[in-house]
């Protein structure tokens, strides 16, 4: 047989093995569901929760992509304010907000005060200059309080440990 024929046979065999594995999995789930529906659902829920806890970065990455996609597709869009939100819940909160009600009624927001503009500039400058920076997570914050709050999170603790391990 030629190498091309062997490749075709290998691909067909791989596809058949995957199909067989999928069918075995379906039969197993059906049997388990029939025997103990509540227990099977609880076991699966516990396994999913355990996986998501152990793979938090991957969960967050996937969720971020999903939110960005929904915003880009304008899946949850407020036509009065011409803004897209990441979820139906966020849209509901927006529709109940005073800002939305004011815009829908045609009322304009007041311009920010000079002090608010100055504070925003100071915070943006601190973030750009990495004044309050977390090295293990490679994140900058606009003030020391935000950095301290970040450092108390589990994500920071995991990244900090990985950072220390990489330094040794």
Oligomeric state of shown chains: single chain
Overall shape: it is extended
Helix amount, in percent?
over 70%
* Helix-strand string: HHHEEHHHEEHH
Q: Going across the biggest sheet, name each strand in turn.
A: 1-2
Total helical elements: 8
Mean pLDDT: 92
What share of the residues does DSSP label as strand, in percent?
5-15%
State the end-to-end CA separation. Answer: 53 Å
Give me the secondary-structure category: mainly alpha
Sheet of most strands: 2 strands, antiparallel
What is the radius of gyration computed over CA atoms, rounded to a whole number of angstroms? 26 Å
Strand tally is 4
**Low-pLDDT segments, ≥5 res:** none
Provide a descriptive summary of the structure in words.
The protein is mainly α and about 170 residues long. Helix content is about 70%, strand content about 5%. Among the domains are: about 65-100, no CATH class; about 135-168, no CATH class. The chain contains eight helices and four strands; from the N terminus they run αααββαααββαα. Strands 1-2 form a two-stranded antiparallel ribbon. It has a two-stranded antiparallel sheet with strand order 3-4. Strand 3 (about 130-135) and strand 4 form a beta hairpin. Helix 1 packs across helix 2. It is extended, with a radius of gyration of 26 Å. The model has no long low-confidence stretch (mean pLDDT about 90).
């Amino acid at each position: 047989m030629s190498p091309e024929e062997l490749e075709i046979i290998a691909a067909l065999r791989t596809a058949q093995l995957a199909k067989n594995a999928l069918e075995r999995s379906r039969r197993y789930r059906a049997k388990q569901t029939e025997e103990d529906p509540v227990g099977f659902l609880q076991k699966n829920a516990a396994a999913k929760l355990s996986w998501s806890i152990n793979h938090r970065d991957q969960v967050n990455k996937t969720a971020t992509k999903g939110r960005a996609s929904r915003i880009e597709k304008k899946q949850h869009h407020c036509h009065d304010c011409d803004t897209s939100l990441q979820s139906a819940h966020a849209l509901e909160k927006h529709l109940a907000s005073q800002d939305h009600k004011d815009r829908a009624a045609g009322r304009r927001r007041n311009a920010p005060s000079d002090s608010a503009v100055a504070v925003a500039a100071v915070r943006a400058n601190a973030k750009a200059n990495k004044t309050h920076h977390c090295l293990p997570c490679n994140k900058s914050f606009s003030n020391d309080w935000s950095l301290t709050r970040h450092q108390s999170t589990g994500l920071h603790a995991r990244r900090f440990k990985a950072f220390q391990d990489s330094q040794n």
